[in-house]
Write a structure and sequence with these properties.
single chain, about 160 residues, alpha+beta, 3 helices, 7 strands, about 25% strand
């Protein structure tokens, strides 16, 4: 496991509902523009890849499947540099997992956009944090990672545990 890749808060219990990731490709974030349909949470908002758990999946399995389905990318476990269990926002009383994933520059050439969302793009973390149309809980989770990570490596600073 990568340094700084440690759970915080709720455990990996049967109650977790899903997983999302801030996927860095080089120094930019892979973002998805959510569909804009009635009844969908955060319609049209900027989002990170990820989604709901399917039966029996671990948080890592949920994330890997969702990233494959949404943007067609795979990754090695060593590229997961941080994770945290968070309280679910869309479904109060649940746990969702938030990950930070680092891919090499140029990985965007492998994106095959799936059938969910209006499109995808790359943006700086600062632009995502400032975007008025980003999912606010993901802005908060990204900020938590930024505040705890060594920006030169993406790993937690010595003495901090994510």
């Amino acid at each position: 496991m990568a340094s700084g890749y440690a759970p915080r808060g709720a455990g990996e219990s049967a109650t977790f509902d899903g997983a999302k990731a801030a996927v860095f490709i080089g120094d930019r974030l892979l973002v998805i523009r959510r569909d804009d349909r009635p009844g969908l949470a955060w319609p049209g908002a900027l989002d990170f890849p990820g989604g709901g758990r399917e039966a029996g999946e671990s948080p890592e399995q949920t994330l890997a499947r969702e990233i494959r389905e949404e943007v067609g990318l795979g990754y090695a476990p060593s590229q997961l540099v941080w994770r945290r269990a968070c309280a679910g926002v869309a479904k109060p009383g649940t746990t969702v997992w938030f990950f930070v994933l680092r891919l090499a520059p140029g990985a965007e050439r492998g994106v095959v956009f799936g059938d969910e969302g209006q499109g995808w793009g790359l943006m700086t973390p600062a632009a995502f944090l400032a975007a008025p149309d980003a999912v606010s809980s993901l802005q908060h989770r990204l900020r938590c990672w930024i505040d705890s990570a060594d920006p030169s490596t993406g790993f937690l600073r010595s003495g901090r545990n994510g």
